[in-house]
Specification:
By secondary structure, this protein is mainly beta. The chain has no helices and 11 strands. It is globular, with a radius of gyration of 13 Å.
Length: about 130
């Protein structure tokens, strides 16, 4: 069964850090391009970061550049999103997505359809 399961969300104070994990089962993440998204109720999903399949190039939204870091551990079939210096506006449900065919040259290429996505994990930044 193909599945993506996120974890690591929670409540954190402004300036704090969280590391999100996304574990894949039923397929090999190394063969897939990866996207991290976030979504708040009533709004469309917002791409946060994406990782290319072929050369592991990583792209970030301007709003998180310098604060967030995406990575993949192929041995664990897991991708991560390290989030530092969190701000209240980072509050959202974060989810990962994977697709075998997506190709990215710029961050704008991240906001496309994906074959698989997880259910998401809630991140709340508040004092």
């Amino acid at each position: 069964q193909v599945q993506l399961v996120e974890s690591g969300g929670g409540l954190v104070q402004p300036g704090g850090s969280l590391r999100l994990s996304c574990v894949a089962s039923g397929f090999t993440l190394d063969d897939y391009a990866i996207g991290w998204f976030r979504q708040v109720p009533g709004k469309e999903r917002e791409p946060v970061s994406c990782i290319s399949k072929d050369d592991d190039s990583i792209y970030y939204a301007d709003s998180v550049k310098g604060r967030f870091a995406a990575s993949r551990d192929n041995a664990k079939n897991t991708i991560y999103l390290q989030m530092n210096n969190l701000k209240p506006e980072d509050t959202a449900v974060y989810f990962c997505a994977a697709d075998p065919s997506n190709f990215y040259l710029t961050f704008d290429d991240c906001n496309v359809s994906y074959d698989y996505r997880g259910q998401g994990t809630q991140v709340t930044v508040s004092s």
